[in-house]
Amino acid sequence: MYEQGVIRPPSEASSLLVRVTRNCPWNQCVFCPAYKGTKFSKRSVEEVKKDIDAMAVEYGGFARIDSVFLQDADSLVLAVDDLVAILEYLREKFPKIDRITTYARARTLKRRTVAELTRLKNAGLTRVHAGMESGSEKVLQLIKKGLTPEEIVTGGRHVMDAGLELSEYIMPGIAGRALSEEHARQTAHVLNQVRPHFIRVRTFAMHPLSPMQKMVREGTFVTMADDEIAGEIRLLVEDLDEMHSYFSSNDFSLNLLMQVDGFLDEKKADMLRELDTFLAFSKREKQVYILLQRSGYYRYPLDVVRDAGVLAKVLPEIERLEKGGEDGFNKYIDILKSHQLPQPQTDDWC
Ligand code: SF4
User: Fold this and answer.
1) Ligand 1 centroid vs 89 CA: distance in angstroms?
2) Which of 18, 19, 144, 265 has the fewest CB neighbours in a 10 Å radius?
3) Residue 348: its pLDDT value, please?
4) Is 349 touching ligand 1 by the criterion CB < 6 Å?
5) Is residue 303 part of a domain?
């Protein structure tokens, strides 16, 4: 009937998924299993139009379809004329659409001129999702992101200057212990230059199929525990300007402190206070909070660690885990985190 790719951002959960390319033209990021073993290809305008026709038959009667996400990982590699033809056809077939978004790599965004991106905006594109992960040259090389900080800044500025919305995705924990501080400081430095509409936090957790497992075995990458990652996020938020960018933590299940969320020009002090409260907890209090957050979908306020009823249930469990060895608690948390990893068609990697 029509093709669909495997991932999309969580904010596009109710969007129509229109596949304009297949897979990822880069496909080398070591943390990302999304397209490994697949080959990238562009789809022709005619092929995509046929899909849109089939979707119009299936969904055309549903008034609620008002947003579209263009798949897969780097749609703007298509010729601008082809993208304009697809965007115009989408709006013709689905006249109620008021939002069309896509993933794009910073290198591609740097190649696209502001005039080209403005043309896409005028044809209906509204938002670009870009996975920068880090602003540190060393970290970008470590994870084989295939980007430089300069490409992230220039590509991001092109999007902003064209009047499109920009979501930048960052990945606390991806630098490992050795590069954590550099990762936090340089990511803030790059974001302060791009000043995107959204900064979306995607806490790193090791996927069982990730090539990074090999780096862990070889000792070239040391994973960070939840409290260390919270410290890294503290450094990042501290260095971010009080700009009108939305720092978004509450839309990704692997983020521990989802309440660290809001516009930086309004909520930065509140976010730092929340992080400081957590970081000042005793080791036991941190364990209580982490175990509660990682065990279910309910989100707890930080003062839950002083609730006698909760402690009566959670403390014996922590003591039992610690009896399993020095690192028994952290190993159990890693298992819980692996259950929260993004799933195909329900979440994103990019
Ligand atoms: S993270 Fe994005 S750019 Fe990197 S391999 Fe995965 S899909 Fe491609």
Assistant:
1) 28
2) 265
3) 57
4) yes
5) yes
